[in-house]
Amino acid sequence: MNDIIAEFVNYLLKTKHYSTHTATAYETDVCDFVQFLKRFNNGNAELSDVANADTFAFRGWMADRAKRELTHKSTARALSGLRTFYKWLLRYKNIQNDAIDLISAPKVERKLSKAIEATDISDMHAAIRSLDFEEPWIAARDWALIVLIFGCGLRISEALSLKNSDVANKPDSLRIIGKGNKERIVPVLPAVHVAIEKYMKINPFGTRSDDALFRSVRGLPMSARMAEKVVEKLRHYLQLPDYVTPHALRHTFATALLAGGADLRSLQELLGHSSLSTTQLYTKVNMAEIMDAYKHAHPMANENN
Questions:
Q1: Distance, CA of 109 to CA of 125 (rounded, Å)
Q2: Per annotation, catalytic residue among 77, 179, 184, 198
């Protein structure tokens, strides 16, 4: 089975162009099921056992994950990964399993992210200058990163994948390669250009056109964890809520556009969502704000009236 799983992971990386992180997650999910199947079948978990797994085996695996106190969200994701594995088996190994299609994923409550207040983002600028006053280029880098994510609605990985050549000569838009190697074009605001230009002028590392735009203090390409720490440091300094993260900056971009009248299809394109249902979550956020305002403002909202 190890060789089969390795072949599957190679397919995800080389054919589907999944990220290493995603491919590793799928590998973990498949291995988790195989290990359970080994216990379920008294030590047997060969390819034939995986091929012939029935609904009792799949439901038993999900029940086992519940006993291990794994969340519904984690199990739903693992089941999705396992479905992908079985689809690959059918296509490339001519192995069909109909039982997995009869299994329903556990219901996962989709929690709505919270947007960051505009004043908090402004405060971040002042905080960066205070925290990094001894290293102006780091202060310029951190602000450029925050403005880029907030101004263009990028994921961390997308912002950190940019090269100097991508932002040279103040382009009106950026070509972004997002999840699943999906390409999209996002417009660039003047404020984003100003922040990036200031950073590039004093950045001491990676000045060639094909070098990564954002650099670490040692001159290496900046990692996602480093970017997260930038926001964490600001959050602690300003005593902001825990939901203030790089993703919350992207979320704030989306809610601001929706509140300003952007239609869902345009927002879907700007965010790089493969499914419109993901984008539709932002309508719930906006409606929650509308309902809150309604309850506070409408003269008949008070029970006493």
A1: 35
A2: 179
Element (H, E) at 184: strand 183-187
Give me the catalytic one of 193, 215, 235, 273: 273
Catalytic residue among 26, 86, 199, 282: 282
Residue corresponding to tokens 């230009």 = 197
Of the listed 65, 215, 235, 250, which one is catalytic? 250
Phi, psi of 107 (to 5 degrees): -70, 130
Class of the CATH domain delimited by 118-292 = mainly alpha
Each residue's pLDDT, cut to its tens digit, for the chain (305 residues) gives 899 999 999 999 999 888 888 899 999 999 999 999 999 888 878 899 999 999 999 999 999 999 999 988 899 989 999 999 999 999 999 999 999 999 988 876 655 567 788 788 889 999 998 888 889 999 999 999 999 999 888 989 999 999 999 998 888 888 988 887 888 888 888 999 999 999 999 999 988 999 999 999 999 999 999 999 999 999 999 988 888 888 888 888 887 777 777 777 777 777 777 666 666 666 665 555 555 655 665 555 555 54
CATH superfamily of 2-102: Tyrosine recombinase, N-terminal domain (1.10.150.130)
How many CB atoms are located within 10 Å of the residue 22 CB? 16
Examine the residue annotation and report whether 65 is marked as an active-site residue of this protein.
no
Where does CATH 1.10.150.130 sit in the chain? Answer: 2-102
Query: Is 215 among the catalytic positions?
Result: no
Q: What is the model's pTM?
A: 0.59
Query: Which residue in 65, 155, 235, 251 is the catalytic one?
Result: 155
Tell me, yes or no, if 110 is annotated catalytic: no
250 is catalytic: yes
What number of residues does the chain have? 305
Q: Please indicate whether residue 111 is annotated as part of the active site.
A: no
Whether residue 218 lies in the annotated active site: no
Round to whole Å and give the CA distance between 41 and 213. Answer: 52
